[in-house]
Amino acid sequence: MDQYKFLLSEEQIPQTWYNIMADLPQPPPPVLHPGTKQPVGPADLAPLFPMALIGQEVSQERAVEIPGPVREIYARWRPTPLVRARALEKALDTPAHIYFKNESVSPVGSHKLNTALAQAFYNKQEGINRLSTETGAGQWGSALALAGAYFGIEVRVFMVKVSFNQKPYRRALMETYGASVVASPSEETNAGRQILKQNPQSTGSLGIAISEAVEVAATHDDTKYSLGSVLNHVLLHQTVLGQEAMAQMEMAGEYPDVVIACAGGGSNFAGLSFPFVGANLRGEHKARIMAVEPASCPSLTKGKYAYDFGDTAGMTPLVKMHTLGHTFLPPGIHAGGLRYHGMAPLVSHLQQLGAIEARAYHQLTCFEAAIQFARAEGIVPAPETSHAIRAAMDEALRCKAEGKKETILFNLSGHGHFDMQAYTDYLAGALKDYAYSEQEVAMALAGLPAV
Ligand SMILES: *Cc1c(COP(=O)(O)O)cnc(C)c1O
């Protein structure tokens, strides 16, 4: 019988996260204090994050131990399956082998719980009982809400208003896990009030919601802030999935020629790809590594590599990354988790080094791929994930055209069960592609902080 699933046992959940810092030919540029423009120190970050996470942010250690209690909770759904997409291969009539790592089997339906758990654990360990955060499409908010429930932490979520309205069930899920949710921009923070004064109709953005969540943490001693992507420690936690995938590819007797993931802030991309990038950097293998983003929010493919704020109000430290400008408001595409103006500094650095490649697609062609995938493999992917699927299918079709039997691995970062309105709209022909606004980006880039 043909084998479909490659499964590891619970004991085979990695003991450590993989830190790519140890294998970089040169370190990424330092994070700067927004006032002094000098490199930030632990004391600058202490109001926002527990010390353990600040330590991981700058760690050079290759293998960072996964705490016992985190690994134990991982075991409730990890290791996740690696699946050979034989039906999709057949539908595409490609000689390529297509594999996907199925992160949609987590209780919240995406990879995000991998870091949410770790962050909740370290906060709890340092006596923190309240976390504030933002969420775009709602996946991160639900992951942190559940992690908060597991570790007894109150979670306050600022949810981008357009998603708050489009995705009432995500909000219901967060509340079911015990979090409190507010639409952003809100009247609760200076940052939110400022935006609403300028534009009462604002549908929000991830950058605005981050400003609000950071402000709450910065102004409350008992509250820390938690971010679902972008930062080094978040990317680190996600490598649990890439390391599993590497072991599972070995079980399948193959090594990927190309490793693909969608990229919003860059965490699921890093999670899957960094162990493979590390093997490339150490000269052990030569896989192509591809990040896929929306053509309407193309930070890696069209953004500028520059120091910028992580949020809209300019409250976060300055990080060097591919950015469309912190005031850029991405159009309301359905892949809400990919609507962020910047890209993780580590992913940006690898792009600068030529260690990864990037590609952008419009949403209609991604939905088309998602539906073909669903009809073949049965899993309805999140709109974010459909970007990776589009790229994987295009690579498989290239293999077909070139008569090449390559091995393709992509990350199924999440399912789309809470995104069925987007599918309804797509199937009704009511979705459109948004042009990338050269002019708006130029305006936003003009506002980059001087460094
Ligand atoms: C949040 C999310 C993404 C994008 O975030 P990254 O940090 O780039 O991974 C992609 N897919 C799913 C399912 C998500 O929930």
> What is the second-level CATH architecture of the domain at 68-109 and 232-445?
3-Layer(aba) Sandwich
What is the straight-line distance between the termini?
Answer: 60 Å
- CATH fold title of the domain at 68-109 and 232-445: Rossmann fold
Biggest sheet strand line-up: 1-4-5-15-10-11-14
Helix content: 40-55%
CA radius of gyration is 20 Å
- Give the helix tally: 18
In percent terms, what proportion of residues is strand?
Answer: 15-25%
Q: What is the CATH C-level name of the domain at 68-109 and 232-445?
A: Alpha Beta
Overall mean pLDDT stands at 96
Q: What does the largest sheet look like?
A: 7 strands, mixed
Number of strand segments: 15
Q: List the uncertain runs.
A: none
User: Which distinct ligands sit in these coordinates?
Assistant: pyridoxal-5'-phosphate
Shape: globular
Helix vs. strand class: alpha/beta
